[in-house]
Amino acid sequence: MVARPFITLLAAVAWMTMSSFGVQAIFFGPNEDFYNKYCVNKNPEVANFGYVCFDVDFDITRHATGGTPGLVGVTSADKRHFILTFKLEPKEVWLNTLTHRIRFQPFQDDVSRLILVQYTIYKSNNQVQAQATFMPGSDHAKF
């Protein structure tokens, strides 16, 4: 039997290798506690990163096709709810799915100093489906 830490290490190495060759890779890991802390809690914790919470009708791990290298998401147990986290750099980040392309632009709010994230959801025909700015406590994005 192969040890679990070895499998985790192997997956991380594969992801880093794909990213270094320019393959658009995104890694989703389940972490119900992290998801709940920022997306379910009525008074979400203040974070030193920006984030967007999503609710979808499908398993995002099977629906995502790529994104900006280094993009990491955390899912709820059922993988139909997820959070993507952002720092101020890069200035523009993408997530590609089977039916949508989502552009994220993190920025720091001048008053609160929080990192907020403006996002635009495009349908497969490049038509804008939704556009908003996500801040702690915002309604979850849907597509």
What keywords describe this structure?
143 residues, alpha+beta, 5-stranded antiparallel sheet, 3 helices, 38% strand, signal, Secreted protein
Please summarize what this structure is.
This protein is an alpha+beta fold and 143 residues long. The chain is 21% helix and 38% strand.
Layout of helices and strands:
Layout: H1 4-20, E1 27-30, H2 32-40, E2 50-55, H3 60-63, E3 64-67, E4 72-75, E5 81-86, E6 93-97, E7 100-108, E8 115-123, E9 128-134
Parallel strand pairs: 1-4
Antiparallel strand pairs: 2-5, 3-6, 4-5, 6-7, 7-8, 8-9
How would you characterize the overall build of this protein?
This protein is of the alpha+beta class. The chain is built from 3 helices and 9 strands. The strands form 2 sheets. It has a 5-stranded antiparallel β-sheet. Strand 6 and strand 7 form a beta hairpin. The N and C termini lie far apart (40 Å). 22% of the residues are buried.
Number of domains: 1
Q: Which band does the percent of strand residues land in? A: 35-45%
* Cα radius of gyration in angstroms: 15 Å
Helix content: 10-25%
Largest sheet: 5 strands, antiparallel
DSSP helix count? 3
Q: Report how far apart the termini are.
A: 40 Å
Protein name: Secreted protein
Keywords: Signal
Signal peptide: 1-25
